[in-house]
Design a protein that fits this description.
- With 284 residues, this protein is of the alpha/beta class.
- Helices cover 47% and strands 23% of the residues.
- The chain contains 10 helices and 11 strands.
- The strands form 3 sheets. Strands 3, 4, 5, 6, 9, 10 and 11 form a 7-stranded mixed sheet that branches.
- The protein is globular, with a radius of gyration of 22 Å.
- The relative contact order is 0.14.
Length: 284
């Protein structure tokens, strides 16, 4: 069985479209159709009903779906473990929402090195939707993200609530309406909603940035203000290079831990998750 055919199957099921799935995998639509045809020939079952509004699983496709994600995860683990040096027993993959590398990844790697040096670590940083795809495909074992999706075979639990504070390069008070030099850091859907509630009537921002480190560097060199994790700016506030904006509301964002329920990986996951929970406790 060609593992790329299985990936194609999962992508079509995720998007509901042969055409969109082909674009996501950077292949032609005819190549996508050929992959599914090869899979159907091997299974001797039709997997999708093609309809005008998209593709839906047949009964046979629904039955195969329960095993497809497991096949991908098994292949990815085999590929990763076969490349390990002899000093490591296995590898554990962690995906982290953008902008949380310093607060989560750095202390987790240190914790794993101190407690489980026999485990290699693989880290990915991306947006929530992409991390869920990597989790589904078996490229990572655990993800810390903003917007989890309920998919078969995964557990979702709250990880940590983190405070975002409005800081500026110069002392000032909160103002209504647009502010010169304000950098809108996109902390996800829940932040965008909370920001709109706290600052109604403000439409498009002149500067919008997805990476907090880039936005912070811009503010420190060019001046301005923006919302950042309190833990990431407290030292700069203490040194006087940044200032809390007086009267500005704090905004809290929730992060979630999502991991795959794989019986044969329970021991490895338990070790990795223990480190993450320890970090969450330290952050509190």
């Amino acid at each position: 069985m060609n593992i790329e055919n299985v990936r194609a199957f999962l992508e079509i099921n995720q998007t509901g479209s042969f055409q969109q799935a082909a674009r996501n995998l950077n292949i032609t639509q005819s190549a996508m159709s050929a992959r599914i045809k090869g899979l159907e020939t091997g299974l001797n079952r039709q997997l999708f009903h093609r309809r005008r509004n998209g593709a839906v699983l047949t009964r046979g496709g629904q039955a195969f779906y329960r095993h497809a994600a497991s096949l991908i995860r098994t292949w990815e683990l085999a590929r990763q473990e076969s490349a390990l040096s002899e000093e490591f027993d296995t590898v554990v993959g962690l995906g982290v929402q953008l902008n949380h590398w310093h607060s989560i990844v750095t202390p987790w790697i240190e914790w794993m090195g101190s407690h489980h040096s026999d485990l290699a670590t693989q880290i990915r940083s991306d947006y929530s939707s992409r991390l869920m795809e990597l989790l589904r495909d078996g490229s990572i074992d655990i993800a810390i993200l903003y917007e989890p999706q309920q998919i078969p075979g995964v557990t979702i639990e709250k990880f940590k609530a983190e405070k975002l504070v409005l800081v500026s390069d110069t002392p000032r008070q909160i103002e209504s309406g647009p502010v010169d030099g304000y950098v809108f850091v996109d902390w996800g859907q829940s932040f965008r909603a909370a920001h709109s509630r706290e600052f109604p009537g403000i439409g498009h921002h002149r500067i919008t940035v997805g990476l907090a480190d880039v936005a912070l560097s811009h503010i420190l060199t060019q001046g301005g203000s923006g919302y950042f994790l309190q833990s990431s700016v407290v030292d700069k506030v203490e040194s006087g290079s940044l200032h809390y904006v007086t009267g500005a509301p704090d905004i809290t964002i929730e992060t979630y831990m999502v991991f795959v329920d794989t019986p044969e990986r329970q021991n490895v996951l338990k070790k990795a998750i223990s480190g993450l929970r320890s970090i969450a406790g330290d952050m509190a």
